[in-house]
Amino acid sequence: MAVTKTEPINGSTNKPSSSTVLLKSDLMSTLSLKSLKLKTKQQELLIRVSILCLVYVLAFITRLFSVLRYESMIHEFDPYFNYRTTLFLTEKGFYEFWNWFDSESWYPLGRIIGGTLYPGLMVTAAIMYWGLRFLRFAVHIREVCVLTAPFFASNTTLVAYFFGKEIWDTGAGLVAAVLIAICPGYISRSVAGSYDNEGVAIFALLLTFYLFVKAVNTGSLAWGLASAFGYFYMVSAWGGYVFIINLIPLYVLVLLITGRYSMRLYVAYNSMYVLGMLLAMQIRFVGFQHVQSGEHMAAMGVFFLMQGFYFLGWVKHLLGDKKKFEALLRIIVTCAVGVGAIALGVGTASGYISPWTGRFYSLLDPTYAKDHIPIIASVSEHQPTAWSSFMFDFHILLFLFPAGLYFCFKRLSDATIFIVMYGLTSMYFAGVMVRLILVATPAVCLISAIAVSATIKNLTTLLRTKSKVSQTGSTKGTSGGKGSSKSLPDQSQPFQRNGAIALLFGAFYLLSRYAIHCTWVTSEAYSSPSIVLAARGAHGNRVIFDDYREAYYWLRQNTPSDAKVMSWWDYGYQITAMGNRTVIVDNNTWNNTHIATVGRAMSSYEDEAYEIMRSLDVNYVLVVFGGVTGYSSDDINKFLWMVRIGGGVFPVIKEPDYLVNGEYRVDKGAAPKMLNCLMYKLSYYRFGELVTEYGKPPGYDRARGVEIGNKDIKLEHLEEAFTTSNWIVRIYKINPLRSSTRDVSSHPTQPPSHSNTCFQHRKLKLDHIQQSCNNSTSTTEGAFCIMISKHVFDYFPVGISSSLSSIFLKVVLYLSVEGHWTWRRREEGSLLKMGNKYYGECHEKSIHCLKPANKEASLERETDNERWAPPPQTWDLTSSAWAGLYFRSLLMGSDSICLTLQLGNRGMGPLSSLLKWNEVDLPSREEKLRNDSRQLLSAQ
């Protein structure tokens, strides 16, 4: 059957039938809000909830570029430590997590994990993981860690909405939620895979501020207590809580000065501070800092000031006489200021109140870190912020921010005063330190949202008003000539209306450009994991450099499980987490001396560096090199910071020795010490044979754009073990000691001869040593002195130029000569000053500092000190010689020992021998020591 096609007659088009029109009208009426028969407020609520849901989803999916482009992986450096600890928590549980001593980091010191981190991020991810597993979702903990930051970024949009609504109106809250959802300043630390503390901390920070402002506006005790719990979560998640505990007291102080004191403020601050402080003290890493740290004293001072205000108000009401009250006020204020100043001075002088930290000083004085603590200034995110970074992260918000401040000052209230102070202080800190742009982003978004909301509201109000006026005028004009002449519309009305429409279109255009910019920045700048590098090839195709994971996989598969890897501290977390190998230093940077030792090794000649590495039991050295690929964040570009940090502890390292006329160079004009230091040789070994770019000579460094100065590099004590496919990571193995060098494990009967004048002290006779030892305070100490001194020069130990060695030797010495194998608390202070931060906490908190020596001893028979103290050593010849050398330096003065002895000329480094815990119980050790002492005394 043929189907005929209807053609239009005389060129006319077919009109839709009446049934089609009715169908479309019924469909539109069905989809309209009117069909739901909702009231106006209900319709507004529905639209508001719909917008928030869309923004919530937008905030999550816009952070998934890295997962879609690469794979589900952890980014950066610190997140790998967070992932490793979270994995440990989910597998071992809370008890093992709090008592975890990590021997794979900071060798040979180790690290107490449970007491040296902010656990909020790990606990949050673990709870989500356990919850999903309880609901029978088959997820891996890595997937939870990867998506934690996007999830909390979505939650932050909801908090931003309620915060904006609280300080201004609903429109400002909606705009704030949209702005913060895609703002690059926040996205930089909340993309998928950015498993760092800031991922949950910004949510906690904004939540704390919102709850506190809500408490101030309402005077409700419940909101005040809720803000305390928000503060507790912030303290558990990030060290940036110091910003909260200083901004809120500053805000309260401003309200007191401006005469805005009220009972609402009194209830809000007191409830937040008291409960928040008590909760924060439950975090082991924070402890009693709220009452002992100078960074927290402002909050305590404002707390007492609030009590004074309340007391004075009560006294004023009780007296009723203004003159008497003013006289009493002067007396009370004078006494209070005097007592406070005396208490603060005594507390600071006695050491009860600790001074501000280096990072805190750096915020007030940007040059402080570079001059006094170079390790802080060496971190790129601690550098001052360039103006281009503000434009890159804020875009048009940088111009809306001043407009929002104007509207806030125009309508001052307790809430707007808070957001103004938050915005101004955070923007100042963001200018000092680029990392703190993250803290300023919520304030910038909220204040900009106020500007957008107020502007759009004023423009739409103007349009509605003009529309009503014109409609009224036209109606009266048609009723008669008289009415028409009296109600002629203003001639400027069309221009105002057109101007308002133009401004609205301009505002929407700028906001659309903001959305485009945010999407581009998120995709291109902030969604590339640093562990996997990407670049554009000659034909525009994307090239992936996966050298980091390639190197860590090689370490895990091809090195002994107990191998120690030395690298700059930037890569410590990744080596431990992905390579599963012990590192000398990592990103925790708690011991500046240990990091300086690594910096000294990297900046020394190979012979000197070899001795340092042997003393630290280093087996492999890892360096990052970008000369082939043009990767600029390599160790050569970081090298001057190694020199500065090393020179801060070891004056023998001087930065001018590596510069030429104040210029840092790696070509033929470089300084001789630069061309021959360990870092240069490890980075450019065999590089002089390589042609990296067409038309360039061999050995052309693409990262620095020069031809290297030393192409004929020979290694004496190291050998190349592995270089990744793109030469980004290079690993070298430490060669074993040569046969000409004695190994302490062989225990020769006759000491070898040494030509160095440092060994002239071997001629000292034993009776002279014994005479010095007779001055000891106890028989055991004197016998021990003789025993260890006998082996000092028979088995040549290393020197004590390293303060790290001094720490360990002093620990071993006092564990031995104090008589009862217990940890003496009087030594804690000196050890803390020497850099070992955690030994003092071991005794105080009864936690595992080191591996317990006596595993089978019953808890009833051992005392707490015996059970938890660092276990003593079996005094073999090596450890005896070590402790003897240090002990003799204490007895006879530094002149009796050469302080420049070579480090680590033994088959096993001395620090390693000190860490070989024996399994003999305590009484057997004491008996062994007494027997050895008797044998030595009888032999004389």
UniProtKB/TrEMBL annotation:
Residues 564-622 form the STT3/PglB/AglB core domain. Keywords: Endoplasmic reticulum, Glycoprotein, Glycosyltransferase, Magnesium, Manganese, Membrane, Metal-binding, Transferase, Transmembrane, Transmembrane helix. Its EC number is 2.4.99.18. Gene3D superfamilies: 3.40.50.12610. Pfam families: STT3, STT3-PglB_core. It is a multi-pass membrane protein. Its main location: endoplasmic reticulum. One of its GO terms (cellular component) is endoplasmic reticulum membrane. It catalyses: a di-trans,poly-cis-dolichyl diphosphooligosaccharide + L-asparaginyl-[protein] = N(4)-(oligosaccharide-(1->4)-N-acetyl-beta-D-glucosaminyl-(1->4)-N-acetyl-beta-D-glucosaminyl)-L-asparaginyl-[protein] + a di-trans,poly-cis-dolichyl diphosphate + H(+). Residues 50-447 form the Oligosaccharyl transferase STT3 N-terminal domain. The keyword Magnesium applies. It is found in: Endoplasmic reticulum membrane. InterPro entries: Oligo_trans_STT3, STT3-PglB_core, STT3_N. Its cofactor is Mg(2+); Mn(2+). Residues 470-493 are annotated as: Disordered. Belongs to the STT3 family. This is dolichyl-diphosphooligosaccharide--protein glycotransferase.
